[in-house]
Amino acid sequence: MRSTVADVMTTGVASVTENTGYKEIVQALLEQGVSALPVVDADGGILGVVSEEDLLHKEEFKDTDHDSNYWPPLRARLRSRLTGAGVLVERADEKAVATTAGQLMTHPAITTRPDAAVVEAARLMERRGVKRLPVVDAAGALVGMISRRDLLRVFLQNDDTIAAAVQEEIDHLAATVQGTDIAAAVKDGTVALTGSVHHRSTGHTLARLVNRIEGVVSVDNRMTWHVDDLLMPYAGL
């Protein structure tokens, strides 16, 4: 069974409101030992996320008065962020003069649900270019946060648990496909598949299914086959 966001997310998450001031945000980040905080409304609904990156713009642009020879390059003044509508370019220098969470936050917040699969959350982070996701319930209220570090917990599955899941896949294959004689060994999350199958495509499919098992780091496919149907020429050619 695949883990869900609820299995690995952090609960009891500290948050700030739109009116929370800059120094108060910094203090909360340091006290909580986190790199970002969700910004919520009076009903606990998620409005955005304020991060260390948002706060550090103020330091980067501090020395930009008329008497200074320094002015950050354009790539530093503009920040690109993926959104559902495409690429959003934000003015980092504008955030440098912001004083509240509402002015500093990245919004709208990209969120996930507690019942979402961990792999779905990982893909969402990668696709949207974010390091963490607020987790909201059906009503849109904040119930937790999930970070890239939290996602790594799925790889802490012990080898015995992984081996049992792999054997289920092998048993199912053997019961449905003739000529299947496969064994598996698991060490530190790496699965070595040995034995033989009639068609090469059968072994290819099994290796792909095993690689999707939670906690599997890699698959060492040593299976042999009798018919290489993956390289058979098209009929009529």
Automatic annotation (TrEMBL):
Residues 158-227 form the BON domain. Keywords: CBS domain. It comes from the Bacteria. Residues 9-68, 105-161 form the CBS domain. InterPro entries: BON_dom, CBS_dom, CBS_dom_sf, Diverse_CBS-Domain, UCP036990_CBS_BON. This is CBS domain-containing protein.
